[in-house]
Design a protein that fits this description.
This protein has helices at residues 19-26, 74-92, 98-112, 141-154, 169-179, 212-219, 252-258, 265-290; strands at 7-10, 40-45, 55-57, 60-71, 117-128, 133-137, 161-162, 186-195, 201-204, 223-231, 235-240, 245-250. By secondary structure, it is an alpha+beta fold. The protein is globular and about 75 Å long.
Amino acid sequence: MWFKNLQLYRLPKNWAAEAAPLEERLARLTLQGCSATDPRSIGWVSPRDGGSLIHSVNQQWLLALGVEEKLLPASIVKRFASDRAKEIEETEGRRIGRREMRELVEAMTLELLPRAFIRRRSTYGWIDRSNGWLVVDAASPAKAEEFLEQLRKSIDTLPAKVLKVTLSPSAAMTAWVADGEAPAGFTLDQDLELRSTEKATVRYANHSLEGEEIRQHIAAGKIVTRLAMTWNDRISFILNDLLQIKRLAFLDILKEQAEGQGENEDERFDIDFTLMSGEVAQLLDDLLAALGGEATAAM
């Protein structure tokens, strides 16, 4: 279980929650699957087939939100509705107005939904109570908020808040690149995005950041909005100006630690999750320090 993208939320450190009562609440909102006329269904699923809704290893919790969606393109609905409208015009000798056309589209949607293909996806979240983290493995904030919204429906008093830091990520990253010096424990890699106040954007990929050209962009007022970094030669990632961590990659030294361990798939899954959660917790601590710490006191 290796996360690829991190959307970060803060919980109170040593949050006084227990797995069993929380799982009972999650069980009230499990994924039921789409009925014949439902375009979408959402609910909790087990992170491991046949397992519990909260997969707990060494007090680290893994949750999974399942979403089923009917694949029914609007263009297909519109085509069927247009064909039905033509039939009515030919048989009844009258034109179809806009209101009736909208009604036809709605009717065709209900008629076609039972035949639509179903796509299923899962979004994973990791809760680290001792260190006060709720981390969602999602590439977009929308999917992370979808996870958080469902969790709030399950837990009325969920104390999760968006992480806020003292230093602006853009300001910090711009200073690191301008000085050619990464914060302690990190190195600067070769992917970079700069943006001006007019939204003009310059991107570098697999490009040395030591050239004078980049410093000239910064001197002209551009700020860094995406920066590739590596933490302790163990995890590489891209940090952006919204404090999102993208393209998380666990390097060979970590994967080698996991290889050959565990007698079966379940044990290997737990070992991977333990390594991932332990390393990412340390990465987040160091990243917080590099960004001046949290803007508000821990809850």
